Amino acid sequence: MLIANISPRSMGKTTDTGFMAHAFHEVDYPVRAWDADESQHLKQWSEAAGGFPFPVEKNATATFAEDVQPLKDGIDLVDVGHTENHPHIADSVLKIADLAILHMEPSMADWQRVTKPRTSTAISDIVARSAFARPGRQAPPLWVLFNRVRPGVNSAKEIRDMMREAGWNVFTVMIPVRDEIKQATAFPVERASRGPFGELVTEMETRGLVKHG
Ligand SMILES: Nc1ncnc2c1ncn2[C@@H]1O[C@H](COP(=O)(O)OP(=O)(O)OP(=O)(O)O)[C@@H](O)[C@H]1O
Ligand SMILES: [Mg+2]
Description:
The chain is an alpha/beta fold. It has 9 helices and 7 strands. The site of magnesium ion has 6 residues, from helix 1.
């Protein structure tokens, strides 16, 4: 199966994708990570870390869907180029995605950028329009993962409730703001499955979004 990790610029895709890939790998899913961003931040992270313990491939093109055959018994996690400047990459990845995850901070600023961007297409519209290019004419399910969540601040839960009421699927697990997560993207990742990313794997399994390979 293939998971498209999408968002406007700098909302946490690469960081979350790297940790999620490690968390799935640690609990024995076959994992392949894809850097579908011209910045190649994920690929650079894996090289700086001396290589991730699973393959990290590059394909930041509008032909991603034609080039890539998703794993049948494992998970492809794709770090998609941000949608403001590279919607062609998201359009292609979404053609073959089984699940799309939107990464954002639970703040009104990110909510505005997601729902009412002024100079790009709204994420939900990008996901919805992918239906036309997919065999079953149905868009992949879209789930929201909150990251950079500050401890003891209620606004995250308020924004989650607001988004759920507006019809969004929002994961209950939230990724906290942490210096060690911020600093992690040049280093090897250890024990990702012990922390919030492990809880996210469990929530995804419980919700039937992934099956153990
Ligand atoms: N849980 C976290 N705690 C603290 N900082 C974080 C966390 N997650 C991400 N960040 C920081 O937020 C910023 C954006 O993260 P990241 O680079 O992963 O986003 P992105 O969506 O991939 O950006 P781009 O669109 O530029 O590729 C980075 O400075 C990163 O270090
Ligand atoms: Mg990135």
